[in-house]
């Protein structure tokens, strides 16, 4: 399951949020630097305050069995009224920021992608605003009901992983295979949702006579959804060739883009980033697998070397901690060196 879960996730290609952040940077080098820093800060720097509090709580409350209550108990034990109030305000602000963002996002999707497109395409803007507000209230009610009847946050997270696992492959492969289209993604999402829901209902009501473990649901969903979206891909027409050709000229993706690459080259696009006569932005050089995969491995060394190395240092394991941290620093230096060199075109 671990060999599958890391790519069978909605953020397997970075997700819309990170892709928008990368697209907003100055150039590819700045985009890479921003993601390396985000990865380091998010997975190496940010977790350690939580880890330290958790480790101290083991000594302060050795008989505590409800581990979810350790953090609030540490807050009330060691923070005075001022700092406690400040921390509570920060936690509530972060919570409300996440909640209102998802409510507005869900309402926007519903109004613009479903209601406006298929149900009322020519209504006034005021009408769509009111529909969005009512949809937001409906989503709040649905979320409250889910929270009311849920007994485990871990179980909800596992269900979320199962729910989208069948679509992770198509989200990733759409960058490497020209044949994937919008119907492939829609089929993958619908099949993943249906498969995960039915398997969980089967566990609840005993339809299959077998209780599926989390990893079984994950693997079954990936396999069944994969068969469905592959079939839909070959049964539906590909994306318009002009759009594919324009995307290829701009990005030069790797993988299975042979027909589109031939079409783009046949239209007279230069290979090495020269602008054409109409003043379009120069296409990127051809994609080479060596440097991206090298950077991928180096980033793994940077993240895990830093994260585990700091842990070893805190536990007093100085030789192993120093070695891991040194490996992380060496990986960071190599990443910086690669970014200083011009991108190869072959």
Automatic annotation (TrEMBL):
InterPro entries to which the protein is assigned, alphabetical: Na/Glc_symporter_sf, Na/solute_symporter
This protein's record includes keyword Transmembrane helix: yes
Membrane topology: Multi-pass membrane protein
GO cellular component assignments: plasma membrane
Alphabetical keyword list: Membrane, Transmembrane, Transmembrane helix
Transmembrane domains' residue ranges: 78-99, 128-149, 156-177, 183-201, 296-315, 321-339
Taxonomy, superkingdom: Bacteria
Cellular localisation: Membrane
GO molecular function terms attached to this record: D-glucose:sodium symporter activity
Family: Belongs to the sodium:solute symporter (SSF) (TC 2.A.21) family.
Protein name (Swiss-Prot/TrEMBL): Sodium:proline symporter
The species this protein was found in: Eiseniibacteriota bacterium
């Amino acid at each position: 399951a671990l060999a599958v879960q890391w790519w069978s996730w909605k953020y397997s290609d970075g997700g819309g949020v990170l892709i928008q952040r990368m697209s907003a940077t100055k150039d590819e080098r700045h985009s890479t630097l921003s993601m390396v820093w985000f990865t380091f800060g998010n997975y190496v720097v940010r977790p350690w305050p939580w880890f330290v509090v958790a480790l101290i709580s083991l000594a302060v409350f050795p008989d505590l069995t409800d581990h979810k209550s350790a953090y609030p108990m540490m807050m009330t034990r060691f923070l005075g009224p001022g700092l406690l109030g400040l921390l509570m305000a920060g936690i509530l602000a972060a919570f409300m920021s996440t909640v209102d963002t998802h409510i507005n996002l869900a309402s926007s999707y519903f109004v613009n992608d479903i209601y406006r497109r298929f149900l009322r395409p020519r209504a006034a803007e005021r009408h769509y605003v009111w529909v969005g507000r009512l949809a937001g209230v409906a989503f709040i009610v649905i979320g409250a009901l889910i929270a009311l009847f849920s007994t485990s946050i871990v179980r909800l997270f596992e269900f979320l992983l199962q729910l989208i696992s069948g679509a992770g492959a198509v989200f990733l492969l759409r960058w490497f295979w020209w044949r994937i289209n919008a119907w492939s993604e829609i089929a993958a999402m619908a099949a993943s949702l249906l498969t995960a829901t039915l398997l969980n209902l089967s566990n609840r009501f005993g339809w299959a006579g077998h209780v599926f473990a989390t990893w079984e649901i994950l693997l079954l969903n990936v396999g069944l959804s994969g068969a469905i979206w592959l079939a839909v891909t070959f049964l539906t027409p590909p994306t318009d060739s002009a759009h594919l050709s324009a995307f290829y000229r701009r990005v030069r993706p790797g993988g299975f883009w042979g027909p589109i690459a031939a079409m783009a080259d046949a239209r007279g696009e230069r290979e090495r980033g020269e602008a054409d006569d109409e003043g379009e932005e120069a296409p990127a050089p051809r994609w080479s697998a060596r440097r991206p995969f090298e950077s991928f491995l180096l980033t793994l060394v940077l993240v895990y070397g830093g994260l585990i190395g700091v842990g070893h240092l805190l536990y007093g394991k100085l030789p192993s901690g120093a070695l891991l941290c040194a490996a992380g620093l060496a990986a960071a230096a190599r990443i910086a060196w690669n970014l200083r060199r011009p991108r190869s075109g072959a």
